[in-house]
Amino acid sequence: MAVAADILKRITCDPEIFGGKPIIRGHRLAVEHVLGLLAAGDTPETLLAEYPWLEREDIHACLEYARRIIGQEHIEPLPSTGT
Q1: Domains in the chain with CATH codes
Q2: Given pLDDT bands bounded at 50, 70 and 90, which one contains residue 41?
């Protein structure tokens, strides 16, 4: 498997495609869509069959991208309502 920094090179942004949302290697397939399909229960094998140009490393890149975004989140505790 590729180093995380290298694999992220597969994720690109193009203002002309989906308003600049992250996509895979310039194709019209958003990272968000791939993550949604995986979350809905599709397997990597299903995605690879549906998108013949897609590579397993592209799926790994989507997961690594999501991990890095989530890793930067800062959760602020909600104020107590006293109830």
Answers
A1: 13-55 (1.10.10.10)
A2: very high
